[in-house]
Amino acid sequence: MAEHILKCLKWHRSRFTVGCFPPLFVGVQGPQGCGKTFLTSRLREQLAASPQRLAVAVLSIDDLYLTHDGLVTLAQAYPRNRLLQGRGQPGTHDIELGSNLLTRIGTINDPSDDAVEVELPVFDKSLFGGKGDRLPCGKIIRPTVDVFILEGWCVGFYPKHPSIIETRWNEPVRGLEDCFDMKSFVSMEDVLTINERLRAYVAWWNMLDAFIQIKGPSSSPYKIIYKWRLQQEQYMKASNGGRGMTDQQVKTFVDRYIPGYVFFEDGVTNGSIGKGEGEVPKWSGHGLVITIGPERELIETSEF
């Protein structure tokens, strides 16, 4: 991962003639429980160490969620769409906040910019009985920022033409035929609502210069997510005296995210597809896919 970032950083800086370079924007996407946050933290440490000594700022897309009141209002506006009954899905983030924030970070190294610092929001998931809320104060970053990482489970997901949604709707979910029934869980209208909401996120994705995607094995791309997320919860409960979700609650939690992976995850490598709406991701040619096995062991890497 560090090697990929360094290669992309060299390319990024070669596009500018001035000595004050804007940050390299990197998207990192991976499913719940895959070790995404851990790997991002290790990546930050590696890049900050000698001989690179790069300044790296990291923001989780989770910290861009709507406030608690905003999430409640959204849920009330779509009472029958279980995908919007709580945080998580595209549509539950504050688009205006994210757009303004990413724009400011993009110019943070510009000496002519009046902004000498940028405040990254923090969303505390423990508030309101686990429903969460944005904290009044965030984390401050200051210039110089060499690399900025935006990480999250749906970073890089692209909307699709409705015909693509319909085709996938009528297909079984690979590897989950015995434990997840898409049509009894959500309606196609629910998915199309998320698809429409995703359009606003493309402006964020267009700010990303490079990308790293972490995936499970192709033989079980979705089923493995349940295992990883359950392991994550069990590890947490072992260290905090048993507080957390039951195994069934973990399954129910992951169920809400499966439609996102099925319909939109391939946007990371393919962008939007279908009937005249094709859009290639900006990071195409500067992307890295890391495929890991059931125990999170490295299987292979590839570039796109």
Please tag this protein with its features.
304 residues, 37% helix, alpha/beta, 12 helices, 15% strand, 6-stranded mixed beta sheet, two-stranded antiparallel sheet
Describe the structure.
The relative contact order is 0.18. Helix 5 runs antiparallel to helix 7. 37% of the residues lie in helices and 15% in strands. The two termini are 14 Å apart. It has 304 residues and is of the alpha/beta class. The model has no long low-confidence stretch (mean pLDDT 94).
Could you write a compact summary of the structure shown?
With 304 residues, the protein is of the alpha/beta class. The protein is 37% helix and 15% strand. Helix 5 packs antiparallel against helix 7 and helix 9 (223-240) packs across helix 10.
Q: Which word captures the global form?
A: globular
Average pLDDT works out at 94
Terminus-to-terminus distance: 14 Å
Q: State the total count of DSSP E strands.
A: 10
Rg over C-alpha atoms, rounded to the nearest angstrom: 19 Å
Furnish the topology, listing elements before pairings.
Elements: H1 2-14, E1 24-29, H2 36-48, E2 56-60, H3 68-77, H4 95-106, E3 118-120, E4 123-124, E5 133-134, E6 139-141, E7 147-152, H5 162-169, H6 182-185, H7 188-198, H8 202-205, E8 210-215, H9 223-240, H10 247-255, H11 258-264, H12 267-270, E9 287-292, E10 298-303
Parallel strand pairs: 1-7, 1-8, 2-7, 8-9
Antiparallel strand pairs: 3-6, 4-5, 9-10
Helix pairs in contact: 5-7, 9-10
